[in-house]
Amino acid sequence: MTGFTLHPRLLADCHRLGRLSASHLLLHRNAAVPWLILVPETDLGNLLDLTIAQRDAVLADCTHVSDYLTAVLGYHKVNVAWIGNLVPQLHVHVIGRSPTDPCWPKPVWGHLTEAHEYTPDEIDAIRAGLVND
């Protein structure tokens, strides 16, 4: 898709990590929970509106991120959601969860009151673990 741009709210809230096979990969700036966001290059607003091939490719990217959260970072629970109430651009949240996180067992939306920043080295390590470019 030519002329693809990320929604300004996503750019304000996230660090850009790079590209996966079917999605742009972002890391939410709040390091209180490992919160990654995948943005496929499409004008469609709903995941289920994608072609089966596109949807499968996005879900494969989600699986890749989930595997990183569980195998590398040690999270046993991964939440995946595509809500899009505030940002109309199709994006998928993939979040590592733990009973020790600041909003457990509630969802992160509206309950994440703690804020921590990633260091540049932490961002680079996450990028290196997920992006192969």
Can you describe what's shown?
The chain is of the alpha+beta class and 133 residues long. The chain has helices at 8-13, 52-72, 120-130, and strands spanning 14-19, 23-28, 35-40, 77-81, 92-97. It has a 5-stranded antiparallel β-sheet with strand order 1-2-3-5-4. Strand 2 (23-28) and strand 3 (35-40) form a beta hairpin. The radius of gyration is 14 Å and the shape is globular.
Give the tags:
22% strand; five-stranded antiparallel sheet; alpha+beta
Sum up the overall morphology in one term.
Answer: globular
Oligomer: single chain
Percentage of residues in helical conformation: 25-40%
Gap between N and C termini = 19 Å
State the gist of this model:
It is built from three helices and five strands; from the N terminus they run αβββαββα.
Topology readout:
Layout: H1 8-13, E1 14-19, E2 23-28, E3 35-40, H2 52-72, E4 77-81, E5 92-97, H3 120-130
Antiparallel strand pairs: 1-2, 2-3, 3-5, 4-5
